[in-house]
Design a protein that fits this description.
By secondary structure, the chain is of the alpha/beta class. The chain has a single domain, classed as Aldolase class I (TIM Barrel, Alpha-Beta Barrel), CATH 3.20.20.70. It is built from 12 helices and 8 strands. An 8-stranded parallel beta barrel has the order 1-2-3-4-5-6-7-8, surrounded by 6 helices. Helix 3 links the parallel strand 3 and strand 4. The protein starts with 5 loop residues before the first strand and ends with a helix.
Length: about 260
Amino acid sequence: MSRKPIIAGNWKMNNNKAEAKELVDGIMYGISQLDGSKMPEVVIAPSYTALWQAYDLIKNEPKIALAAQNVNPNPSGAYTGEVSINMLQDFKVKYVIIGHSERRQMFGETDEFINKKAKAILANSMLPIICCGETLEQREAGVTDSHLASQITKALQGLTSAEVEKSVIAYEPIWAIGTGKSCDSTEANRTIGEIRKVVANLYSQDTADKIRILYGGSVKPSTIVEQMAQSEIDGGLIGGASLKAESFVDLIKGAM
Ligand code: PEP
């Protein structure tokens, strides 16, 4: 089963207007040197305030897709500080990252709210990148697989197989995010295989074979080749190493 790999940069709360321009320009220059036919799908997730500019810079560059780092699932109304799906559509946003551990832990987002976002995103022709991951305590207690199964089952609740097939999951062990300590590639591969089994049990083997599941957590140019060599890993969701054009382009090269 061949699944198109994805290299997605999650900028988090980084990059003002000038910094965002420099980064997008650098990525565009870097990928102009690469063989487009071999490239993974490249996705960048700027902050809301940089979305307009990123959209404007890449609008004639089909090799880069935009993602948002969050969305509110309600169509409009009294939600101070929130951004709707309709607003993201102005910028041709293709993907929305949901369920990131930072939003779960710092902003109290629940599995139910994440599921509501997934439904709203898919109902409006965008695609969710659904993050899941265990804490160090959960890993040490041996409950990683059951925790991930629970997160994924709840996030996908009520979605059709056609919706799930085009969605993306990102397995991001929380202890590996921003720590410089990536999960061992074979263990990440095993865990992602377990997530795929959850999807197969909920839907079908065919659906599980189609959904792309990324690894995230301290992915670097020095780790990407080994990670991409794993049969279950369909790409990376990358924070820190996506903030410099050179290293992001190296990650893209590592996925070719
Ligand atoms: C992330 O937050 O999605 C992430 C994987 O960050 P980092 O690559 O910096 O660990």
